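Subject: for your reference before the review

Hello V.,

The reviewers asked for a structural picture of the protein, and I figured it would be easier to keep everything in one thread rather than splitting it across files. Below is the amino acid sequence we used in the manuscript, unchanged from the supplementary table.
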Amino acid sequence: MEVQILKKLYYQMLRIRKIEEKIAELYPEQEMRCPIHLCIGQEAVAVGVCQALTQGDYAMSGHRAHGHYLAKGGDLRKMMAELYGKGTGCSKGKGGSMHLIDLSVGFLGSTPIVGSTIPIGVGAALGTQMKKESRVTTVFFGEAATEEGVFHESINFAVLKKLPVIFICENNLYSVYSPLEVRQPENREVFELVCGYGIESHKADGNDVVAVFTLAQKAIQKAREGKGPSFLEFTTYRWREHCGPNFDNDLGYRTPEEFEIWKKKCPLENFRKKLLNENSITEEELNQMAKLIDDEVEGSVQFAKQSPFPEESALYENVYA
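And here is what came back from the structure prediction:
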């Protein structure tokens, strides 16, 4: 793989990590009043998949959407303003963390209802097929979404119509606080379950950004050639609580030992070591990247804090109900 792509993968993961850590630091100030779901620990899936997409391709997400939005090319300043509920936000301050959108880069949106963007993504793929466009649609969701009926209906329809859509399952082991073993029969693998619909299905290490990129690239190329959808399951792990900026290991739903095992699998740190060992990057370049991102993050926070709240007259704009 080209060194420039490797550096870009690292840069994008570091950018998401630093932004999310900044959000966690600032959230207790009570100026961001929307719920937040951080993806610290899961950066490799968003970055690896989106690096394989073009700007014209589509992506959709769920409640843990910051990484997907930014990796697809979303505007950081607009994202931070959205978290602060400001009129300059990417959803004009009305959506908050869980409703991010940027049509200019093909990020069609995110919603917190589990599984709800899966049929919308399938519909988008149907639209591009009918218009004979070369776009590919990717839909990000957690493994709990595969327990929703709409997931199975969507997979079946996508296979039937050979739609250019990639289903990206981020399996972080928990549906809020419930592990897979209390929700599914023992030894059932998600990626094997969906094979029954006749869809090509794979499972890989979601903390290995190169593995994610390589697998996504193949699935996207296949979809672009009109050869139908794929299902990709990536194992990964969220470090912080399901909703909020804190750590929640005190709740007892996961053990300290499990947490430490996954921290050692940090997608960012392990990739940094790999790049240094292979002489693909220098410490000086890493420091320059970190400085560049820190400046961007600080700028985005100041932009968000100084932006105005939406005008009262805008209350009913873009309301469809």
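For the response letter, the relevant points are probably these. The CA atoms of residues 51 and 100 lie 19 Å apart. The radius of gyration is 19 Å.

Happy to draft the paragraph if you're swamped.

O.
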